[in-house]
Amino acid sequence: MEIEPCIVNIDIPTPSSALIIIDMQNDFVHPDGKLFSPNAKKIIQPIKLLLEKARKSNIRVIYTQDTHFKDDPVEFPIWGEHVVKGSWGWQIIDELKHLNTEIIIEKLRYDAFFGTPLEHILNIYGIENIIVTGTVANICVLHTVSSARLRNYNVIVPVDAISALTEFDYSLSIRQMDFLYKVKFTKAELIRFQETQ
Predict the structure, then answer these.
(1) Which helix (H) or strand (E) holds 186?
(2) Which candidate among 23, 76, 96, 174 keeps its CA 20 to 30 Å from the CA of 134?
(3) Is 0.85 topped by the overall pTM?
(4) What 3-state class would DSSP assign to 135?
């Protein structure tokens, strides 16, 4: 199954937009990680490009950090131990290190809105448009996109800045985001941030 989303150029107003980088952590992205996904390596450069553009334009940058404790009874039976708080695997990869002024949301489950202050933070800063990037496309990315659209945020997904374990999983996530949530698809190089008058 291969889905071809409609890719468009996107002009995004600076004050009301945020870049969200989902779970780009060593356990998922580094070859020595406990749940390493080889495809995640491919999205580092597109995310880095977006990050550089966002910082230059003073776009709010928000990272999510999947976070578990040693005896997590919900996810460890499914995936095994991973991203234990404080461990090397829990750290955001060196290539995409955050600045002290950027926000990190520690999330305990797939959805970055569930049990976190993400929605409150977006509301405080008047965010209406969110660019969602990261891994894994059909799990944490999809659940976060779903929650964002159900809260009526405008969601933009650069297709070259999300990854999944398999092509099937990737295509499935694109299909769901398109059919169910009508997100806008683009590529990292096609996003432009614009100051509003």
Answers:
(1) strand 184-186
(2) 76
(3) yes
(4) strand
Residue 182: give its domain's CATH number: 3.40.50.850
How many angstroms separate the first and last alpha carbons of the chain?
A: 44
User: Rounded CA gap, 66 and 25, in Å?
Assistant: 8
Q: How many domains does the chain fold into?
A: 1
| Domain-located, residue 1 | no
Between the CA atoms of 7, 119, 52 and 4, what dihedral angle is there, to the nearest 10 degrees? Answer: -20
Cβ neighbors of 168 (< 8 A, separation 6 or more) are 1
Q: Helices 142-150 and 167-179 sit at what angle, rounded to 10 degrees?
A: 0
pLDDT tens for 35-62 read: 999 999 999 999 999 999 999 999 999 9
Is residue 3 packed enough to be buried (19+ CB in 10 Å), middle (13-18) or exposed (0-12)? middle
Length of the chain in residues, anyone? 197
Compute the Cα dihedral for 166, 65, 96, 147 and give only its sign: positive
**Phi, psi at 19, each rounded to 5°:** -100, 125
Cα gap 22→54, rounded to integer Å: 15
